[in-house]
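Deviations from the work plan: none for this task. Representative record:
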Amino acid sequence: MRTLTIIITLASMILNSSFVSEHKYYVSITNIDHKKDSKAFEISIKLTAHDVEKALKPQGELKLGSDKELPNANQILAAYIKNHFSIWINNKQNELNFVGKEIENDESLYLYFSSNAPKTLDKVKIINNILSKTFPEQENITYFNSGNIKKDFIFKKHSSIKEFQFK
Amino acid sequence: MKNIFSLALLILTLFSGIAQDNTNHNKFKQLKEEVATPNVYRNGSGAPGHMYYQNRADYEMKITLNDGEQKITGEETITYHNESPDDLEYLWVQLDQNVRAKTSDTYKIQTSSIRGASFNSLKRLHSDFDGGFKITEVSLEGKPLKHTINKTMMRIDLDTPLKAGQKVNFTINWWYNVNNMLEIGGRSGYEYFPKDDNRLYVIAQFYPRMCVYNDVEGWQNKQFLGRGEFAVPFGNYKVSLTVPGDHVVASTGTLSNATDVLTKEQLQRLELARKSDKEPVLIVTQKEAEKAEKSKVKSLKTWVFEAENVRDFGWASSKKFIWDAMVVHQETKDVMAMSFYPKEGNPLWEQYSTKAVAQTLKTYSSYTFDYPYPVAISVHAKDQGMEYPMICFNYGRPDEDGTYSPRMKYGMIGVIIHEVGHNYFPMIINSDERQWTWMDEGLNTFLQYLTEQTWERDFPSRRGAASKIVDYMKGDKSNISPIMTNSESIHQFGNNAYGKPATALNILRETIMGRELFDHAFKTYAQRWMFKHPTPIDFFRTMEDASAVDLDWFWRGWFYSTDHVDISMDDVQWFQVSTKDPTIEKPLAEAKSNDFPEDISTTRNKKEIETTYAEEDNSLYDFYNSYNPFDVTDKDKRKYKRFIEGLNASELAILKSKFNYYQLSFSNKGGLVMPLIIQFTFTDKTTETIRIPAEIWKSNNYNISKVFFFEKEVISIELDPNLETADTDISNNSWPRKVVPTRFELYNRSKSRHSGAANPMKEAQKK
């Protein structure tokens, strides 16, 4: 049974990763900037637009950046990100606010979020499993900047939680 | 316990100390230790050596496509020419289809865990596809040949070794089930169109192919796991393709029985296309293709294609095909640019595909050599992008109402340029894809970028510009591999094997070598290795040998390491030359001395100590109490006169010029040494940019300073003002320091500009 499951996961990996020569990799890039003065996190998430469309297909054809874009595409995107990306301060989840999005013709989709943040940080936890369920090879690179402190993390399907201490 | 631990730590520290301190870690250390020694097969200049050889494999094939059962049956006779100096006891043949056999290693070796299996993957498991080659015969002159199949490779044991300089003829018969690409995946296969009950086949890796045997690898029989693509010897092909009678076939090579399979009208249109170099001519129109979609012909038709000097063969077949073509003129030969697509690809395909093929040939040829084959074909295949000699399969499907987003349009033009571009790398410059993905993908993505920029100004190229690679290169090193990593082991495949090498070459061209030196060296590489098998070292050596630019540091940093560029301008100091004139310098020195802030105690003591002892008793004063070291004395003046008299005219000129001198200090934080491009802005708002080669770091790789002088006074200095070096942290690139806005901040500032969703094309149609 165990072997069976492995094969299942694998079959989907092969489809997703191996055979399309122009697009064989799945990477998102998130920047979290801690703004001490305004007590906020400013977050930008760069994704590949057609990967997101594929992952969210069960909720409708998003058709991002076209005139047929789903009227509630922003809500779907925001809800999806909130389900798969979160920042926790001292074991308490921060609420994310959707700020907006940008779509570029090279397939880049940028999503912007903000959230309240304390001026000084103590224990921070980030969970990031954006697209990991759809694309087992998905890697979510996340940069965290607070003043002079810069940290970077790679979130993968089975390592989607990172915790770190500031004090 | 603790003591043992610290002892171990001490020993470790000692060892690492020894390793680091006493060997050469200079970033300009020559590459001699990392690369193979030049020899008679590959020489020190990067060219094929005087005893360079390569084997060849010619094929005669009879292939039948059974559309009803989605099955391909084939017979082939391979003539293998052993041009090597070695006798070969056995031959290796590639069986790529076996990657989809139920027992394939590709499935076994993928790491995974039980969580997160999706419903789609469950469905795929239950599809129970019986993939892989079913070999029915391997024989020589009618007698069975002993053969052993090891997954995707088959060894054929010869009764007597194939002597150097001799050839052997043998036959293989086989069949296999063709995969539905959209359900099972695959570089080739078919798409099913339920609306008209038709299939569109794009077929490749459909036959057992000879492996490469050469001086570097011996037999190149590294198993096919899915990522590292192919290495195939050159040869001539004669292939007859028997397909349903109403299909139209696109293929590698030249159609040698056109009069048997095309109508008179189609032949006439093809002749027109051979003269049309501005607009494609339709050979099969959409109307005709739509009519064919409805036909249910039972008969079969055989299309015969011949191709010379190719390293593989691919084809496509469907009754749905619309076909257009135009001619591309080159100095040495005319080429037919063609496209085959179903109506589902329109209107994008009729407008752009063949023109994208033509533009690719023109641009790539100008950087390499004239395209040597008679045709270059782009075939429409959903969600795909895959290359074979003279033919490639590309995505780009508009919505059903015929509108499309700009992303789809540029994505399609980009993928066509990319896949047609693969004709040069690796189809003609035949690098070993199974070892080095970057050698074809990186070089090809670089030329793709150059071609896209000739298509349209500010074409939204995904890769090429230095700034686009920054997010990748600044990342956690545990998730990045050097470019010089085998295809199967690469982290972040696309960034590593496509993006970074393409960007590196663009930086070489724009920033390090300059366009003229780079273009000549790059062309030299292409022409030296045209129709041959180069290795990475042959590329590195040629780029240096043809340009007289020592690039060992560049290959070492960009190709052999995961270092990134982060050069910081740490400090700027401003100096002016002393005039030595005491009447000027002494008052200046006095002013400077008085400028020093008064100590707090001194200030308070002025009030608190009403009179000092000396103020009460003046006998405490002597000479030194009235001496002012800043007074200009006669001795000073005499000294100055002697100094001036001792200067020659040019020294005097410097003294009088009042230049401003700036000492700039830089540190290398990312590890990659790069040229310094420094832009000075003066008080009158004019600017001057100074470019300093990377060799400024040659003896100190981490900290340097350099002095610049100007008549004008500088108000600001910017390092890498045009973002051409892929510097990952530009917040330390300016003096005075500038705050670099984040993407979030830029978006917030310009939020009003963005409406979020706009397809101007559809908007226009509504009006």
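Chain A touches chain B through 66 residues (CB under 8 Å).
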